[in-house]
Design goal:
Radius of gyration of chain B: 19 Å
Number of helices of chain B: 11
Order of helices and strands of chain A: HEHEHEHEEHEHEHEHEHEHHHEE
Largest sheet of chain B: 2 strands, antiparallel
Largest sheet of chain A: 7 strands, mixed
Oligomer: heterodimer
Helix content of chain A: 40-55%
CATH architecture of the largest domain in chain A: 3-Layer(aba) Sandwich
Largest interface: A-B, 39 and 33 residues
CATH topology of the largest domain in chain A: Rossmann fold
Radius of gyration of chain A: 23 Å
Strand content of chain B: under 5%
Strand content of chain A: 15-25%
Strand order of the largest sheet of chain A: 7-6-8-9-10-11-12
Helix content of chain B: over 70%
Number of domains of chain A: 2
Number of strands of chain B: 2
Shape of chain B: globular
Chain lengths: 398, 289
């Protein structure tokens, strides 16, 4: 009787162990069939950030079409499902969960930092890799989340803060910085990182001026700044709010060196602001459709226009980010091999060193660093239709 | 002192917009007892029609301006005829939901036609601001305030000195008595909605070069609701309410904290509704039952 009970226990244990192993390995290959890989892609396709989100999706679609036209990756076509996160964390999380439950092998995309920050625990819980095409917050890569890769062609806000701080103090000799930032995850991350970066210097002051997504009147913030008399005016907001902020600041006579953050100038900023942007220094990684001097970018721009036409503020640099990140992802899938699993993809992505997908801004990743870029390019706005490169700021990788 | 004067200038500009939209709201409410939750969407439609006629179609600015006013006025009348007239005897909640739903429908229709993107409307006025002492004023701001003043004066003259205007006032005071005196109440309703549409289109066109034209731009009407509540849904009082809301926002934002800027106007609404629900500038009228 005792022997029988022990045998039953061992059989039960073995069956349970087998089931767990099968489900774990199934989870590793969910979304993969013989001839396809299911990928979820989230972007803000409506609301303030829609011009950037739609452009990012278009860049993604173009990359996917090119990859599939060339036979896919190891004989598997990329099948991408798109969802609108509305730049809203609740909706973004719901959309991501649905994609995961529908069997997506990986998640991609994202533009809004607040949505990305909300998804981090979910992708870790579900063990689903997330390859970011956008977002600025450093929270996606610090602390390291082994499921999240940031391959945007543009550094995160923490790295940018450290890079620009040295430029502000050493080159621009700025000491009074009016800091317009979004009153959300992105903005908080931005100002915290900037304060940390400036901590090693002395004699500087920051006036923090939060703005809300959806606001259209920034009179109070601008007048406060004007009264304070800054020598540098930093602005980082989504394109719609950012355009209005620059317009109103210039109209109300806010003086100082104007410095635009990476979110500002995508999605129709130059159309809206026109000549008022002249003289601004702008953080940007990819050249936009006007100054596309890199051959690969010019060709890509032409392809985007041919395929999707032009819209208000589109195509813009976010299309390049969407395209770029998917080409990097394709390289990772290629390196992972035909016997593809999520763990193998993660390991393969971490082997990339100086990988150039034809747009410049080579990607380097490792088991301790999932941030692909360590260079910030600063452009100067010369006129409503012309930007020239001012400087490349580079820093050592962590 | 310069800072305060600048706040005042900005408040007068924004307050003018709140006042225009608020008066449109009040006209409908006083005539029909209906609060139009789609007022902001009428503003948005005005901006979109304006940008379509002036930029896409290429009509001269003045012609496009006038046509937009007329088109949205007609849209207002169409809404009155097709939606509101049929809800005259419906419970108040039904009418509130109906206008709210209408707003959503209008916004989604715009997204369907134009997409969710943001459009930039060129300003046809000189863009360089003028410095008056230490205070900066833009030509667009002066235009907004000037047009608002002229339109408000014209509106009050129309309501007070013309037969149609007095008929509208009468119907607003007592619909039954007005009908007994031979005033066509249905015509009054239609005129109220047309005027409201006209004012919304005007606000939309004044706003379009200042803000960006996008489906959510009608949200500015929330401030006009505040103005109407502060003014007790009275006509001149709503205009004052519009300027007060704008001034309060800016004073709180500059002298206290930006975080409370929007909350300030809503806090005042709550206080007004608790202390003087008939509005700051209106006497309470007790109805005999």
């Amino acid at each position: 009787m005792r022997v029988k009970r022990r045998a039953c226990g061992m059989i039960t244990f073995s069956v349970v162990a087998m089931l767990l192993a099968v489900s774990a390995s199934h989870a590793q290959t969910t979304g993969i069939t013989n001839d396809s890989i299911l990928i979820g892609n989230l972007n803000p396709l409506s609301g303030s950030a829609s011009a950037s989100g739609i452009s990012q999706r278009e860049g993604t679609q173009l990359a996917v079409d090119e990859i599939n036209a060339a036979g896919g990756v190891h004989g598997r076509k990329l099948v991408v499902t798109y969802a609108d996160d509305e730049c809203n964390p609740v909706r973004g999380l719901a959309a991501a969960k649905k994609m995961i439950s529908d069997g997506a092998f990986i998640l991609t995309g994202l533009y809004c930092s607040v949505v990305a920050a909300t998804l981090l625990p979910e992708v870790e819980r579900a063990r689903v890799p997330l390859v970011l095409s956008g977002t600025l917050t450093a929270r996606t890569v610090d602390p390291l989340n082994r499921y999240v890769f940031r391959v945007v062609g543009f550094p995160n806000s923490r790295d940018i803060a450290f890079g620009r701080a040295s430029y502000w103090i050493d080159k621009l000799k700025a000491t009074r910085i009016a800091f317009f930032h979004q009153a959300d995850e992105l903005g908080r991350s931005d100002i915290e990182s900037t304060r940390m970066a400036l901590a090693k210097y002395s004699g500087w002051e920051i006036l923090a001026l939060p703005i809300n997504v959806g606001d259209t009147d920034f009179t109070a913030q601008i007048l406060k700044a004007r009264e304070w008399k800054p020598d540098l005016v930093y602005m980082n907001a989504l394109p719609k709010e950012g355009s209005l902020l620059v317009k109103q600041a210039k109209e109300l006579g806010l003086r100082g060196e104007y410095w635009g953050g990476g979110s500002l100038t995508t999605g129709g900023f130059y159309d809206a602001v026109g000549e008022l942007a002249t003289g601004m220094l702008i953080e940007i990684s990819f050249s936009d459709e006007i100054d596309a001097h890199t051959p690969g970018i010019k060709t890509l721009h032409d392809k985007l226009v041919a395929r999707f036409g032009k819209g208000p503020g589109r195509p813009n640099v976010k299309a390049l980010s969407g395209y770029y990140s998917f080409k990097v992802l394709a390289e990772g899938l290629k390196r992972a091999g035909r016997e593809l699993t999520r763990e193998k993809l993660i390991a393969a992505m971490e082997t990339m060193s100086g990988v150039d997908v034809g747009l410049g801004y080579p990607v380097t990743l490792s088991p301790t660093n999932h941030e692909g870029t360590n260079t910030l390019t600063i452009y100067k706005v010369v006129s409503a239709t012309k930007r020239v490169k001012a400087v490349d700021i580079t820093w050592p990788r962590q | 002192m310069e800072l305060f004067l600048q706040i005042l200038v900005q408040s007068i500009t924004h307050g003018s917009i709140y006042a225009l939209i608020g008066v449109g709201l009040v006209l409908i409410f006083r005539a029909t007892d209906l609060i139009n939750f789609a007022q902001g969407q009428l503003v948005m439609i005005g901006a979109y029609i304006s940008i379509t006629l002036s930029v896409s179609v290429g009509l001269p600015v003045v012609l496009s301006f006038i046509l937009t006013l007329l088109i949205v006025a007609v849209i207002g009348a169409a809404i009155e005829y097709s939606v509101c007239r049929r809800l005259m005897r419906a419970p108040i909640m039904n009418t509130i939901i109906a206008t709210f739903a209408l707003g959503v429908i209008l916004q989604n229709a715009v997204i369907l036609i134009y997409g969710p993107e943001v459009y930039s409307m060129p300003s046809y006025l000189p863009s360089h601001p003028i410095a008056l002492g230490g205070v900066i004023v833009s030509v667009q701001s002066m235009f907004i305030v000037g047009v608002t003043i002229i339109v408000m004066i014209s509106l009050f003259l129309f309501l007070g000195r013309t037969k149609q205007g007095r008929a509208m006032q009468g119907a607003a005071e007592n619909r039954v008595a007005a009908a007994l005196m031979g005033i066509s109440v249905k015509r009054v309703f239609a005129r109220s909605w047309m005027l409201s549409g006209f004012l919304s289109a005007l606000a939309g066109q004044l706003l379009a070069p200042v803000l960006l034209v996008e489906p959510n731009m009608g949200i500015i009407a929330i401030k006009s609701f505040s103005a109407a509540i502060i003014g007790g849904f009275g006509l001149p009082a709503t205009v004052v309410g519009g300027y007060l809301v704008s001034l309060l926002e800016n004073l709180v934002g500059v002298y206290l904290t930006v975080a409370l800027k929007d909350a300030a106007a809503f806090l005042v609404i709550v206080l007004v509704l608790l202390a003087k629900p008939e509005g700051l500038f209106t006497r309470q009228i007790r109805r005999r039952v």
